[in-house]
Design goal:
The complex is a heterodimer.
Chain A lengths: L7 H28 L4 E7 L6 H12 L1 H7 L6 E7 L4 H13 L4 E4 L3 H14 L3 E3 L15 E3 L4 H19 L5 E7 L2 H17 L4 E8 L7 H9 L4 E5 L2 H13 L6 E2 L10 H7 L7 E4 L7 H13 L7 H20 L4 H9 L27 E6 L2 E6 L15 H6 L1
Parallel strand pairs in A: 1-2, 1-3, 3-4, 4-5, 6-7, 6-8, 8-9
Antiparallel strand pairs in A: 10-11, 11-12
Helix pairs in contact in A: 2-12, 3-11, 4-5, 6-7, 9-10, 12-13
Chain B lengths: L1 H34 L6 H19 L3 H24 L7 H23 L14 E4 L2 E4 H23 L1 H11 L1 H6 L4 H23 L9 H16 L4 H21 L5 H15 L12
Antiparallel strand pairs in B: 1-2
Helix pairs in contact in B: 1-5, 1-8, 1-9, 1-10, 2-3, 2-4, 2-8, 2-9, 3-8, 5-6, 5-8, 6-8, 9-10, 9-11, 10-11
Classes of the chains: A alpha/beta, B mainly alpha.
Chain lengths: 416, 292
């Protein structure tokens, strides 16, 4: 019997075989992980504290009921949502996005505010994670060539064009046209984008009124008495606010106190006036204000399912565009997962780019993104606060009530 | 005509808000004038006052103007205890140690507010918040008018206390000459605690008035501390008249700057005023000679 001593070549072969044997499970596991389509981990990054807290919380409610609506609508899969608070600050938004990526989020979603959204978009680009924008209108979000960002919300120029077109339609329907207007706007990223957009688009849209002044202010303002006094001094017949929530309340409070009675308070596409907290705290002084914003399509079966799920889970809270768009962000995410069959970032992003969702909740055409990642099929509605509820009054084919313009005076409401 | 009216409106609004500012700064000025302690927790104490008034309104529907006396009393007691228990040992220590102590109290108060009430803005919302008075074409915010009248009444009471009562006169004597006050047998430690109590009551009352004008959140505290410092430096550190008139000056300058320039730039005006005063009259507009 001879014993063959192993040569150096035998040793190398054995090492390779051993390494292959040890490494195979790891490679197999990795392959399975990339192919599986289990719960999709969504990092929902929103301002749930600070000056925009109530708006961020309204957004979160829309996401909270997403899995219930998916089940009701027989949509495969579910989202596993982790919420991160931006404290209404862009720098915190960025930190939270980093934290979400480190925690293994498959998709980032948010952030209601343009400044915070831009901060998150930068993280998404650097880390190669898909980012679905639920609400944010600053044009640069989809104009900077980002490869990991899609936005299912109109840009500021889209909002303004739709909003101002609806202004003209309202004047036509009611037969009353103001001759002058004043614009009051927050000076944050969103407000600045809106003001610049209005300045650029106003002449092109041939508006029937003259814009007398543009007054900007800090979104965290505690007092708008000087700003409103300045606007009142212009004697404008129409007030166009580009506001958030708290400042919208301060603004209307000052209008009443300073006894300024314009024909209407009508925004060109901005939050603040339709929010539940605005309607609750302003009471009868919150009535008749008009928002020209994208709104929920009451005729869509998915909207009805969303309204039902929302009412069951949050019986005391109103479903508005914040909840609607954030739900749609979850819908876009789950739709991408179901087509990608993978939670891998590249596969998800590729699926997001090819999105086409015909049945959804907001007014407008199918959800699909252009080469820049922007959904260009969203439309606005003219939503007036009537009987303490935001009600669609235009366009006529989806109106639930007739518009009231000019609005009744403050003293008529005190007596009412 | 329209601009003249807007200007008059801005001046009136500035005067009304300035009176509440003045009351707030009065507390800081009284404490510094008597004890030579700079209260760096001033804005934080004011914010606690705003929260208490808000709480009274939310839980029991009590108007801040009604809960004001109770808040002032509570703040007097808390200020007295704070001075007697915590600040007295620091009176003769270096200024940086006093600064650190009061800064620690400030941080503590802000974080307690944050934990208990959260970071969101809390305001008092009622029908009365929409009221106004018209004097000819001039429209006055009813809430500001009430707050200003209350601030004037409190400042008047404070003046009467310091000029008409034995304790008030003793406090002024101790402020004028600490050694002589000790020699004639005044209990200076008790007087100091009383002074800190009075200063805290002033700022607590100012907080109860301010919540009717602006909503509160914990982060406002630093802003109010800074504002109080601007007012007392412009008016003259330690001068009661200076604090009140400084408040009016800052209130009016902010309102007018908001009207004439961009409203977002209105705070710049008051800081500009501060720099001017520091350059041209470092002792403040109504203060004595520097160093006296």
């Amino acid at each position: 019997m001879t014993i063959r001593h192993p040569t150096r070549r035998d040793l190398s072969r054995a090492t390779l075989a051993g390494a292959a044997l040890v490494g195979a499970p790891a490679i197999l596991t990795s392959g399975v992980a990339r192919a599986q389509s289990g719960p999709l981990k969504v990092a929902l990054i929103l301002p749930t504290s600070g000056v925009q807290a109530q708006l961020g919380i309204a957004c979160r409610r829309g996401a909270d009921v997403a899995n219930d609506v998916f089940a009701a609508m027989k949509i495969e899969g579910r989202v596993e949502i982790t919420t991160y608070d931006t404290e209404s600050k862009p720098d915190v938004a960025r930190t939270q996005a980093e934290k979400a990526v480190a925690a293994g989020a498959h998709i980032l979603c948010g952030a209601f505010d343009s400044g915070q959204t831009i901060a998150i978009a930068q993280v998404a680009e650097q880390r190669g994670i898909p980012f679905i924008v639920n609400i944010a209108a600053a044009p640069q979000i989809t104009e900077q060539g980002y490869k990991w960002v899609v936005r299912n919300f109109p840009t500021a120029p889209m909002l303004i064009t739709s909003g101002l077109t609806l202004h003209k339609e309202l004047f036509r329907v009611t037969g009353k046209t103001p001759k002058t207007a004043v614009l009051m706007s927050v000076n944050d990223t969103f407000g600045t984008a809106m003001v610049n957009g209005i300045k650029a688009l106003f002449p092109k849209l041939e508006m029937p009124y003259e814009l007398l002044d543009i007054i900007t202010y800090d979104p965290a303002a505690k007092d708008l008495s000087v700003e409103v006094a300045k606007a009142k001094a212009t004697k404008a017949e129409l007030l166009m606010p580009v506001s958030r929530l708290n400042d919208a309340k301060l603004l209307v409070q000052e209008l009443v106190k300073q006894r300024w009675e314009p024909m209407g308070v009508m925004n060109p596409g901005a939050p603040g006036l339709y929010e539940q907290d605005f309607l609750k705290t302003m009471g009868k002084f919150g009535e008749f204000h008009i928002s020209n914003v994208p709104w929920l399509n009451p005729k869509s079966p998915m909207t009805q399912a969303l309204e039902k799920a929302h009412a069951e889970k949050y019986p005391n809270d109103q479903l508005d565009l914040n909840g609607g768009f954030t739900f749609e962000a979850m819908l876009v995410a789950i739709n991408a997962l179901n087509r990608a069959r993978s939670t891998h970032a590249n596969a998800l992003m590729e699926a997001l780019r090819r999105t086409k969702i015909d049945q959804h909740v907001m007014v407008g055409g199918a959800i699909e993104f252009d080469a820049k990642g922007q959904n260009v099929n969203i439309r606005s509605a003219c939503v007036q606060n009537l009987k303490r509820k935001p009600t669609v009054v235009l366009p006529a084919d989806s109106a639930a009530a007739a518009p009231i313009f000019p609005m009744p005076g403050w003293n008529d409401r005190r007596r009412g | 005509m329209d601009f003249a009216l807007a200007f008059a409106q801005a001046i009136t609004k500035g005067l009304l808000t300035g009176m509440v500012y003045g009351l707030m700064a009065l507390g800081l000025s009284v404490i510094f004038g008597v004890m030579r302690v700079v209260n760096f927790a001033h804005g934080e104490i004011m914010v606690v006052g705003m929260y208490l008034a808000w709480l009274g309104f939310e839980l029991a529907g009590v108007s801040p103007l009604v809960s004001l006396p109770a808040i002032a009393l509570l703040f007097f007691a808390a200020g007295y205890a704070l001075q007697a228990g915590l600040i007295t040992p620091f009176i003769n220590r270096p200024e940086h140690q006093q600064f650190l102590l009061l800064l620690a109290i400030a941080i503590l108060l802000v974080n307690v507010c944050l934990v208990l009430a959260g970071p969101d803005a809390r305001g008092v919302q009622s029908e009365a918040m929409f009221d106004s008075y018209a004097i000819g074409p001039l429209v006055l915010d009813a809430v500001r008018v009430h707050a200003a009248l209350a601030a004037i009444a409190i400042a008047g009471l404070l003046w009467a206390f310091f000029t008409r009562t034995r304790t008030g006169k003793s406090i002024r004597a101790a402020a004028d000459n600490h050694m002589s006050a000790l020699v004639v047998g005044l209990d200076v430690r008790r007087l100091y605690a009383f002074t800190f109590g009075v200063g805290s009551a002033c700022v607590g009352a100012a907080g109860a008035l301010m919540i009717t004008i602006v909503p509160v959140n914990p982060f406002l505290a630093a802003e109010y501390t800074l504002l109080a410092f601007v007012i007392v430096i412009v008016g003259g550190l330690g001068s009661m008249t200076g604090a009140l008139l400084g408040g009016l000056l800052i209130g009016v300058s902010e309102a007018v700057a908001g009207l004439l320039l961009q409203p977002s730039l209105k705070s710049m005006f008051s800081f500009g005023l501060l720099i001017l005063v520091l350059l041209l009259r470092p002792q403040g507009l109504f203060g004595g000679k520097a160093g006296t």
